[in-house]
Amino acid sequence: MTGRPLSGLHVLAMFIGGFGVIIGVNVTLAVNAVRTFPGLEVANSYVASQSFDARRAAQDALGWETHAAYDSGILRLRVEQQDGTRIDPAQFSAIIGRPTTRADDADLAFDALGEAQIALAPGRWRLDLRTSSGAAPFAQSLLFEVAQ
């Protein structure tokens, strides 16, 4: 070998450099995970699970079908009963946002035709619908894509 010998300082620099990269990546991932965490869905998941099946069965018994589509700055919502009768979308409270973060969430109001004007960036979006005007409370999240 004709190079410089491996000294303790070289080993220390490699050790610090290697672990520095690992620690830097972990800190970056942890900061991004905490920053984009949307928060809790419910305060106590055990308590919420106790009535989940009954609420789901009551909502399923309504037989409502929901469809959302976005085109040219207009979000269209269609809600129908089992017999095909339209349900007025204006009776729903709606929140539009991204599935993975609450940063872009916004309240949304539909007119009687089921349309709402909103500018959405390309990508995946989540529409949360809620209403209590019916035989049972109704809550549903719809995912849809906005094309480039």
Q: What class would the helix/strand composition place it in?
A: alpha+beta
Mean pLDDT: 89
Gyration radius, rounded: 25 Å
Low-confidence stretches: none
What share of the residues lie within helices?
25-40%
Considering the protein shown, what is the CATH homologous superfamily of the domain at 45-146?
Penicillin-binding protein Tp47, domain D
Q: Roughly what fraction of the amino acids lie in strands?
A: 25-35%
Distance N terminus to C terminus? 58 Å
How many alpha or pi helices? 3
State the CATH topology of the domain at 45-146: Immunoglobulin-like
Secondary-structure element order, N to C: HHHEEEEEEEE
| Shape field | elongated
* Largest beta-sheet characterization: 4 strands, antiparallel
| Broad CATH class of the domain at 45-146 | Mainly Beta
What report would you give on this structure?
The relative contact order is 0.14. Helix content is 31%, strand content 30%. A hairpin with a 5-residue loop joins strand 2 and strand 3. Strands 1, 2, 3 and 6 form a 4-stranded antiparallel beta sheet that branches. By secondary structure, the protein is an alpha+beta fold. It has a domain of 102 residues: Penicillin-binding protein Tp47, domain D (Immunoglobulin-like), CATH 2.60.40. The model has no long low-confidence stretch (mean pLDDT 89). It has 3 helices and 8 strands, in the order αααββββββββ. It is elongated. The protein starts with 7 loop residues before the first helix and ends with a strand.
Descriptive tags:
148 residues, alpha+beta, Immunoglobulin-like, 4-stranded antiparallel sheet
